[in-house]
Amino acid sequence: MKPEEFRLLRDLIAQKTGISFGHDARATLERRLRDRLLALSLPNFAEYFQYLRFSPRASAEWDDAIEVLTTNETYFFREDYQLRAFKTEVLPMLAAQNKNKKSLSIWSAGCSTGEEVYTIAILVFETRLFDSWDLRVFGSDISRRCVATARAGVYGQASFRTTSPDAKRTYFSERSGGAHVHERIREMCQFGQLNLLDDQRARLLGKFDAIFCRNVLIYFDAHARRRVIDMFLERLNPGGVLFLGHSESLLNVSTAFELLHLKEDLVYRKPPRTGVP
Is the pLDDT of residue 73 over 70? Predict the structure, then answer.
């Protein structure tokens, strides 16, 4: 991959997906995309750039390219301290806020293969605060393959590295292919393919009371991070909460959120309506 080819592809990928490759990532990008050139019988990366921009089949190729460009490392009950704060402090707060309309909507943005979505649903279920409520736990990812895996709800041992034996027995059943998520949890969850830079499609999702976007924005450039955070602000109901990864913050990104101090964590909240605690 020539330096100019790298610059063109790097900028196009960032523009299309938000994923940022640093100036020293030319070898990484070349390694990840080399098989795509072979699959399309293209002679060089300049031709691949032209294909992504102008081919009638570019949309399908972006799906394939995204599979090799993205990192999909996840498992159930990841970052448990934050999940404890969500279950014991945030969910009771949201139950009080929404007691009149009796609905709760949560979005896992960049959900990878779905473990986070089912984890959230399990925690909501365990509180018993939302029995008979209108519940929605929605997971989205830019990867079509990841969304298909999430919808299947069948997982191997690597997904359970921090799951207690009791939780695994309670919410999963061992059958052919792996551990299947129990139907009572699956029916709370929905999945869809979504590019977080696609503001118009994001608006179709409606409003949410909590958004999880953990360890996703670290792969985005500064411009894309600001766009996504602005979109999250728009998608959250007043008083809604945003969860980021432990190494992520909104410093130099947005001042529209307020910090919510919890016992074990700090999270971001869209300011409630005036007069609402």
Answer: yes
